[in-house]
Design goal:
The complex is a heterotrimer of chains A (507), B (430) and C (434). Chain A is α/β, with parallel strands linked by helices and 507 residues long. Chain A is built from 17 helices and 22 strands. Chain B has 430 residues and is mainly α. Chain B starts with 18 loop residues before the first helix and ends in a 9-residue tail after the last helix. Chain C folds into 2 domains: 100 residues, no CATH class; 238 residues, no CATH class. Chain C is built from 16 helices and 3 strands. In chain C, strands 2-1-3 form a 3-stranded mixed sheet. The chains are: A alpha/beta (507), B mainly alpha (430), C mainly alpha (434). Chains in contact: A-B, A-C, B-C. The interface between A and C is medium-sized, with 40 and 28 residues.
Chain lengths: 507, 430, 434
């Protein structure tokens, strides 16, 4: 199926998310849509899928102009979408999920589950997916869940498949498998739109690349173009892909973690006997696919997990068993992996957010009341210092962009007297300018002699910031290796395999 | 892009569901509008935005919501009025009769309400003319106290539907002190109030503790505790050694001793008692607590985003317990206000007089802000005072007030609906 | 944009336990033995404090029965103690299963409940007789509004709409039933009117909660107040002056079903009821089947769990929610007819007396499942009826404590003391489409 988008414009209030975007996707082609976070890629695809209504422009499939009123229409027209956040119902089985909205029914509307199972098995076998139709989705690994999404689209005879940031949650191996699947689908004559901001993947599978920036198409790129070329096109200026930092000046052992074990609410052991040390003035970066215990590790350090055993020792102070408040008082700074959930109070002003973890004593508190003057002065200073783009310190955090929100969190954490910085996904969902800024701040913190623990699922970020890299798999350390370890080795380690000749490095 | 499995306090008015779009939105906005460092400008900007808000319709929608609710109330009055129904029978023959009847029914009702709530122009003596206003204050007292109890919990993200139970328990406890002891007024009254408040705090605290310890949803727990409290008080009122008047068959306690009764503040000719003054003090305290104290800051942080509060070292569970205890003691004060003030003839099962639920509407109308609650409490107090006059003089059931009250809250919660009804242009998404 | 911008009022966001403070407290498997143990000790404690003497008679048949079962006469004390021993045995089994990490099958709590109740009744009715048929049959009758209300609640919440307004639906249903049955002379027209009234309340709930995104708990609570005000107002202004023509409906009478009604024990309990009860059986069966086995049910559950996912496969989320809550409202409204057409003939002020909240409790205690919620509602009906029976024979338990029971049980349930319940994931969360 041939897709033509012509002059698609989508506005949210006064903001233009898509500005007259035109695009053609041919059958049997993988067409990459490349752009940074917030460039408007997802908006465009939601327009294509009938979730948003375009203000201007038209969608044409095989020469016919379409008027979608909802995803149902888009699906009927042969468009299938593999969403970034899977659109699967966790408590339903695979078969139920696949049939939902497209059910085969028997007498009096009863479901024909056998038919649905048959269909799942059929598609699963054709593409070698190995999916059990009777499994409950929430019990499946993410990679398999993604295949369920693909089956869902194929079971509706989709001819155009849209993959929206599909690799964010996958291991490098799973990513490779997905690439194979995409090629296979291409061979079968499907048209494929692949949305991503990861340059490596683009260059691997794309037949054509369209780059989007600030809601506009800035041009087509050659799949053979270099990373630097693609990146500068994506961002609109030359981008430094490496973080400049001097060699670390190491101090004494500062954070010593021994045999740490974390069991979550459901009773699963998420961190399983972790031991490592970070020295003063060192960045230890944790690599691993999302969900291998990183979240629980950082939360355990902060006292946010309940079932923790083992030892976390910071400058001779035991943190396990202490309340979060005491741990913060001990000088732990925390950039949480999801600022919207754990980092900010969206309904508070910037100023109020800046005192969030200092609501118990000075400088902003005296005798149980707030020192509003002191807070405002402080906030004003930080706003300039951290280049937070906002109208004023009374702007609500909810109204800031992702990058500026993150800067508020970083400003708050770094303006305390720190003895350890824990930064989880410090640049997730943040524009390139803010990424550079935040990376510089993290390096500066290290250079002030503060131990830093960085957790990131982006291997690029891990490599850029780390003095040493710790790879986690299923809550266990696969290895702690030097920052210049080859990517292939790291990728392999992220699947739990430890190369035989690998040596752990001790800082 | 930041869909997380954790429940995220989502702003109901965020115009965009896709946060990529939001992000795009704000980046553009902030790049076009440079930050203004001058604080004076910022302040001017804020006051401009207040003006804009009034002009653009949120306030207008609020006024229209009240208007709409009163209109529905008027229709109910007219539709159930005998004269109106009679004249409706020959409306085609003499429509003027019908409209006169409608006008008389409605204007009669509202002027009776005015006479009952604000100023009775049918009387001559000035003190008596203004007596209705003191009645309004009297009814407003417990509504304000209860509204504060509900509103404070709202600010911590808790929905306290347990006002009735907290009032019953506190009222029962205060009443027990009130009739059981012989003490001088300066000791007896404060003691009765204190015991009542503590009882209310403990009862409210149950929901807080259960939420903090087990995650049990406070809506369910407080609803259920209302009934538990009711039967507990019922049982106490059947036991001589607790609350029952010995020798009586009714579930009612003996009357309060004079030394435990809230004194009248404007002399004996008015019913207004100290409870209203207590309510005013409570408004001031609640205002300071929420806006100026660190505890209030933490309460608001927990209410807006408990996850971030927790990650910032705030003990969310403890805040839940503390807030529910404060809320319980405030609703307790509302119950005490009834037992020791408005109906000091003895503790009974209906001592709450439905204030526990009225308090929810007061808190919602007052937007959970102490001063808003004060205003809302006064308005609904006036409705109550006027409603009783309307019932006695025009024979229109006071329950009409309940209908109007709940309609106001419903309409206020949905300005787009009000706008649609009045065919105002929908407000543009900000 | 909306009022909520500067409105620091809550988004209750459904009734799910709050993730910010919910800590792992072990699973239900560990709690069951504790609960059973405490209950066993409680029964033993009661017996120790006042050892019953004499015999307790369990009367199994009514005089009109086709086959008359003999009365069972047991010595009160020894029987009660025997039941304590059996309870201990069941507790021990639960402990054993906990230690060996075997699951706790449903038969343990059920048989425990029956045995415990026999022991309790032996004590409470020592020297007297328990009419088993009227105890259980009465429980079924009393549970009618609770089951209808709970089913309405389950359906709505399965579609993602929290329904606190069950109370309002019952009350308006009762009002409409009384007025319609009086004016038409047909109680069946009244039953139909009750359903319409319940759906009407649901429509308002939907308008605010689905179309205008107002917090569902708030709408529910305020709607209850609104219905109380409205029915009280109309009762005083209209019904009372015209009681003869507007508020004297014909009562629904019990209609025994041939054959089924003659089965010993079962027959008189379940099949000599009013037609409303038979309608109830049908509704329970249909809802339970449809929710899990039909396309309609699959879609309802989908919009309650993950509305966006449902939207992306072309299901109209809000339309589905509207349809579901209208149906749910109609079902809940049917329960209202019980009050003014079965329990008594005619409407009275606030005559539902909080039954809607017990129904809500049954929804939660029944873990959002139609069958379990029905059983929970029956249990609560039983508790209410037991209170009546016991106070009639002058039992030593204060009736207020018996009446408290459903509410206490629900508090224990939501606190996870009797097994954690998991509401539909999107329960209470409005769905916004761009």
């Amino acid at each position: 199926m041939r897709l033509v988008l012509r002059g698609i414009t989508k506005r949210f209030g006064s903001v233009v998310a898509n500005d007259s975007i035109s695009l053609t996707v041919e059958p049997g082609e993988i067409h990459c849509l490349l752009g940074e976070n917030g460039a408007g890629k997802s908006t465009l695809m939601n327009v294509l899928y009938g979730l948003y209504k375009a203000d201007e422009g038209e969608i044409e499939l095989d020469g016919e102009v379409q008027h979608f009123t909802g995803p149902g229409d888009a699906m009927a027209a042969g468009i299938g979408m593999v969403h970034q956040h899977f659109m699967l119902i966790p408590v339903f089985t695979v078969a139920e999920n696949v049939m939902l909205g497209n059910e085969t029914i028997g007498f009096a509307g009863t479901l024909d589950l056998a038919e649905a199972s048959k269909r799942v098995t059929e598609i699963s076998e054709r593409f070698g997916f190995h999916v059990n139709p009777d499994a409950v989705v929430e019990d499946l690994p993410v990679g398999v869940q993604q295949r369920v999404e693909i089956i869902k689209a194929l079971s509706r005879d989709a001819e155009l498949l849209v993959f929206d940031e599909p690799t964010a949650v996958l291991t490098p191996q799973e990513t490779d498998e997905l690439m194979d699947i995409m090629r296979q689908l291409k061979e079968a004559g499907k048209a494929i739109v692949f949305i991503t901001h990861k340059l490596r993947e683009v260059r691997e599978v794309a037949d054509r690349i369209t780059v989007i920036r600030l809601g506009k198409v800035v041009g087509e790129a050659d799949p053979k173009a270099s990373n630097a070329e693609l990146a500068s096109m994506m961002v609109g200026r030359p981008v430094e892909l490496v973080v400049h930092k001097d060699a670390a000046t190491l101090g004494d052992d500062a954070l010593v973690v021994k045999d740490l074990r974390v069991v979550d609410v459901a009773g699963h052991t998420q961190v399983d006997g972790l031991s490592f040390t970070i020295r003063a003035g060192e960045v230890l970066a944790v690599a691993g696919v999302q969900g291998n215990g990183q979240t629980e590790l950082t939360e355990a350090i902060l006292g946010l997990q309940d079932d923790v055993s083992g030892s976390i020792n910071l400058d001779g102070v035991e943190l396990v068993g202490r309340s979060t408040r005491k741990i913060l008082d001990a000088g732990v700074g925390f950039i949480p992996e999801d600022r919207q959930v754990d980092g900010l109070v969206p309904g508070f002003t910037i100023a109020e957010n800046l005192m969030l973890n200092r609501s118990f004593k000075s400088p902003f508190v005296r005798n149980g009341s707030l020192r509003i003057g002191a807070l405002r002065e402080f906030a004003q200073k930080k706003l300039t210092e951290y280049d937070v783009r906002a109208r004023d310190i009374d702007s609500l955090a909810a109204n800031l962009s992702g990058g500026n929100q993150q800067k508020v969190v970083v400003a708050r954490e770094l303006s305390r007297d720190l003895r350890l910085l824990v930064a989880a996904q410090p640049t997730r969902g943040v524009d390139v300018g803010s990424i550079e800024f935040i990376h510089k701040q993290i390096v500066a913190t290290r250079d002030r002699g503060i131990p830093v623990l960085v957790v990131s699922t982006e291997l690029d970020e891990v490599v850029a910031l780390a003095d040493r890299i710790m790879v986690l798999y299923r809550g266990k350390v696969v290895g702690i290796v030097a920052a210049d370890t080859p990517r292939e080795t790291l990728g392999l380690m992220m699947t739990g395999e430890r190369p035989k000749d690998l040596k752990d490095v001790v800082a | 892009m930041n869909d997380t499995p954790k429940p995220q306090p989502e702003k109901p008015d965020a115009p965009v569901t896709d946060d990529e779009a939001t992000r795009g939105a704000t980046t553009t906005e902030t790049t076009t509008e440079a930050p203004e460092p001058d604080p004076h400008d910022a302040r001017a900007e804020r006051s401009r935005s207040v003006l804009r808000e009034i002009a653009s319709g949120d306030v207008l929608a609020g006024v229209l919501a009240v208007f709409l609710a009163v209109f529905v109330g008027s229709v109910m009055i007219a539709a159930t009025d005998d004269a109106v129904r009679e004249t409706a029978g020959y409306i085609t023959a003499r429509p003027s009769d019908f409209f006169t009847a409608v006008w008389e029914a409605i204007s009669g009702a509202y002027s009776a309400m005015f006479r009952g709530a604000v100023y009775n122009y049918n009387l001559t003596e000035p003190a008596q003319q203004w007596r209705p206003l003191t009645e309004t204050f009297k009814f407003a007292g417990p509504l304000i106290l209860g509204g504060l109890g509900v509103g404070l919990a709202f600010r911590a993200g808790l929905f306290n539907i347990g006002g009735r139970g907290q009032m019953l328990i506190a009222g029962g406890a205060a009443g027990w002190v009130g009739f059981n002891f012989d003490l001088p007024l300066v000791i007896h009254l404060p003691l009765a109030i204190l015991v009542g408040m503590v009882a209310g705090a403990l009862w409210g605290g149950i929901a807080g503790v259960l939420k903090a310890r087990t995650g049990a949803h406070e809506v369910i727990v407080t609803i259920m505790l209302n009934y538990v409290a009711y039967y507990l008080l019922f049982w106490s009122l059947t036991k001589d050694w607790l609350l029952k008047t010995p020798g009586s068959v009714n579930p009612k306690s003996p009357p309060m001793k004079d030394s435990a009764t809230l004194p009248k503040v404007l002399g004996d000719q008015f019913n207004l008692h100290l409870g209203f003054v207590i309510a005013l003090v409570a408004v001031a305290v609640a205002w300071w607590l929420l806006n100026r104290s660190t505890l209030g800051y933490r309460i608001r942080a927990v209410g807006e985003n408990p996850h971030a509060a927790r990650a910032s070292g705030i003990d969310v569970g403890r805040i839940y317990v503390v807030v529910m205890m404060i809320a319980g003691s405030l609703l307790g004060l509302a119950g005490i206000n009834q037992v020791l003030g408005t109906v000091s003839s003895g503790v009974s099962l209906d001592l709450d007089a439905a204030i526990g639920f009225d308090a929810i509407t007061v808190a919602l109308l007052g937007r959970s802000r102490p001063l808003g609650i004060l205003a809302a409490g006064l308005l609904f107090g006036a409705f109550k005072a006027g409603g009783f006059t309307m019932q006695t003089s025009e024979n229109i059931s006071v329950d009409l007030v309940l209908v109007v009250q709940s309609l106001i809250v419903l309409f206020l919660a949905a300005p787009p609906l009000v706008r649609a009804i009045f065919r105002l242009p929908a407000q543009e998404a900000k | 944009m909306s009022i909520a911008t500067d409105l620091p009022t809550p988004e209750s966001g459904g009734l799910a336990p709050d993730g910010a403070v919910t800590h792992g407290r072990g699973s239900g498997a560990r709690k069951l033995p504790i609960v059973l143990g405490v209950l066993t000790l409680l029964l033993a404690g009661i017996l120790l404090r006042s050892e019953p003497s004499g015999d307790t008679t369990f009367q199994l048949s009514t005089v009109t029965d086709f086959v008359t079962l003999p009365d069972i006469v047991v010595p009160s004390g020894p029987t009660a103690w025997l039941m304590v021993v059996i309870c201990l045995g069941l507790t021990a089994e639960a402990v054993r299963r906990m230690l060996t990490r075997a699951g706790q099958p449903i038969w343990i709590p059920i048989s425990f409940a029956i045995v415990w109740m026999i022991g309790f009744l032996s004590w409470a009715a020592a020297g007297d007789r328990i009419r088993v048929v009227s105890l259980l049959g009465g429980a079924v009758a009393l549970a009618i509004p609770l089951v209808f209300g709970a089913l309405g609640g389950v359906l709505g919440e399965r579609a993602g709409v929290v329904n606190i307004a069950i109370e309002g639906q019952l009350l308006l249903g009762a009002f409409a039933a009384a007025v319609t049955a009086s004016t038409t002379g047909s109680p069946w027209a009244g039953v139909a009117a009750a359903a319409v009234a319940g759906a009407l309340v649901a429509l308002i709930l939907g308008l605010f909660a689905i179309t205008y995104f107002v917090d569902q708990v708030i709408v529910g609570v305020v709607l209850n107040v609104l219905v109380v005000g409205l029915t009280n107002f109309l009762f005083r202004q209209v019904l009372t002056p015209n009681a003869e023509s507007l508020n004297s409906p014909e009562r629904l009478r019990a209609v025994p079903i041939p054959v089924l009604g003659d089965i010993p024990l079962i027959g008189p309990i379940f099949f000599r009821q009013t037609p409303l009860v038979y309608l109830l059986y049908v509704v329970v069966a249909v809802v339970a089947f449809a929710l899990y086995r039909t396309r309609w049910g699959l879609r309802v559950r989908a919009v309650g769990e993950h509305p966006k996912a449902a939207d992306t496969v072309g299901i109209k989320v809000n339309r589905t929610r509207y349809r579901t809550i209208l149906l749910a409202g109609a079902i809940a409204g049917l329960g209202g007819a019980y009050f003014s057409l079965v329990s008594v003939a005619g409407f009275n002020r606030e005559m539902t007396g909080g039954a809607g909240y017990i129904a809500l409790a049954a929804v939660i205690f029944g873990k959002w499942d139609p069958i379990r919620a029905t059983l929970a509602a029956l249990l609560f009906g039983f508790a209410t009826n037991l209170q009546g029976v016991l106070s009639a024979i002058g039992s030593p338990v204060p009736s207020q404590f018996m009446l408290m029971l459903p509410y206490l049980v629900t508090i224990f349930a939501v606190a996870g003391l009797v097994g954690r319940s998991r509401p539909p994931a999107a329960d209470g969360v409005p769905y916004r489409q761009q």
